[in-house]
Amino acid sequence: DVKVTQSSRYLVKRTGEKVFLECVQDMDHENMFWYRQDPGLGLRLIYFSYDVKMKEKGDIPEGYSVSREKKERFSLILESASTNQTSMYLCASSSQGARRNEQFFGPGTRLTVL
Amino acid sequence: DQQVKQNSPSLSVQEGRISILNCDYTNSMFDYFLWYKKYPAEGPTFLISISSIKDKNEDGRFTVFLNKSAKHLSLHIVPSQPGDSAVYFCAASDSNAGNMLTFGGGTRLMVKP
Question: Are B93 and A101 in contact (CB under 8 A)?
Answer without folding.
Answer: yes
